[in-house]
Design brief:
The chain is mainly alpha-helical. It contains four helices and no strands. Helix 1 crosses helix 2 (23-31), helix 1 runs parallel beside helix 3 and helix 2 packs across helix 3. The chain is elongated, with a radius of gyration of 22 Å. The N and C termini lie far apart (50 Å).
């Protein structure tokens, strides 16, 4: 993994967690325009996501029935 890729991954993880940027990220970004730009874009993204309501995926209305049917059929095949 290149230094820029590593820095951008670490920056993304820190921003996602709401943690300060690691010193490696800060020092590299001070000398690298591409990484400064990427960190700026990631900051905007995670700021916007933090301002959005959390999306929760709901299971299909028949999920419990289908799961129960599958579990019952696999149990009967093992017997």
């Amino acid at each position: 993994m290149t230094t820029c890729a590593r820095v951008q991954n670490e920056a993304g993880a820190a921003l996602f967690e709401g943690s300060p940027l690691p010193s490696l990220v800060s020092s590299h970004a001070a000398a690298c325009e591409a990484c400064r730009h990427e960190i700026s874009e990631l900051t905007l993204l995670f700021t916007a996501m933090g301002a959005s309501p959390t999306l929760v995926a709901m299971p299909h209305k028949n999920f419990a029935d289908r799961k129960s049917t599958r579990l019952n059929s696999s149990h009967s095949q093992q017997s």
